[in-house]
Amino acid sequence: MKRKTYVKYVIIAAAAGLGLLLFCLSAVSWGQQILAKDRVMFYLEQPLSVQDAEAAAEKSQEEKQADNGQEEGAELTPKFCIWGQKDKVEIANHNLCRNAQADAILMCGNPELLFEDCRLPGREDIQGCLLDEKTAWELFGSSEVTGKEVSYEGKNYIIRKVLPGEERIFAYQVSSKKADGGVSGIQPENESFGGEQNGTDSVLSRITMQKPETKTLQDLQSLWGNKYGISVTILDLQLLRGIGGFFVLLVPLTSCIYFLWYLFCQYREQSQIVWKAAVAVLGMALAVCFFILLKKQINIPDDYIPTRWSDFSFWQNLWLQKQDAVKLLIKMPKTNLDYSWVATFGRTLGCGISAEIFMLFGIAYIRFYVCKQQK
Description:
9 helices, 2 domains, alpha+beta
């Protein structure tokens, strides 16, 4: 009997430990989603040309220079980066006769919005590029390659920074201008300027933008249409953060409900007023603590609140909008950078559900064991 009891306690402890570990992994992944909430991503069904992307970047820069801190409350465009991806391009190191395949990230704007703490290459730096560590090792046999040159489509690029990770990334700023400042026209088939090759126009299909606290997603979407004449579709990562947050809270919610139910049972079993009061106070304290936790963690965006409570069609339209948003997130072509938020959301969801399963298993096992002992 002692051995069986010991085994049961080991099973319960193992399930509780694994459930706690999964819950922590889910919470950490959700925290990574929350850290990215100051950025918003748009999808362009009609990709921009290099010239259109440059025009938007130049217009935004002119606005900031004209403002110069003199006009308070001026509606300036937040930082943004128009970008796209070419899959599996060939990068060469002619000095060592080495080649490597990588996904080319074509940028027009602030690279820091795509790569954390990376401000290079700047918008005007059409000769600079970024490599990830794995590609750098394949080309040079080292990750300490800042300042060295690689070749892509007949043009030499200087490595400004090596990105941590093994995502096989080669990133650079696009431009329609030659290296000498002229505008590139029609290029011979085997001749390369500092400008972009044919095919670039079909990949600039994303915009990543800094999100001010005072702006909603719809405000930023309207900004692109009204100010730049560019039709954009919101990639609703805010919805994914909300779904992830719900599954992270499942374990605390289940635990709180179970303990409240347990305290309620204890309250009914107590015959003395003192013990009844003590159990009631403990239950109320637990309920208040959980309410405070929910209040801090749950934040309903303004987009989810109707302007008039009598507007019953709001909820139906919101449901249809979220359905379309999920379909877009699933069906749209994924880039190398998209797999970051896809993996983060997947870990949040998977670990949260698994932790809840272990929690329910533990509660059911404990209840079954207690009932059996009582019999």
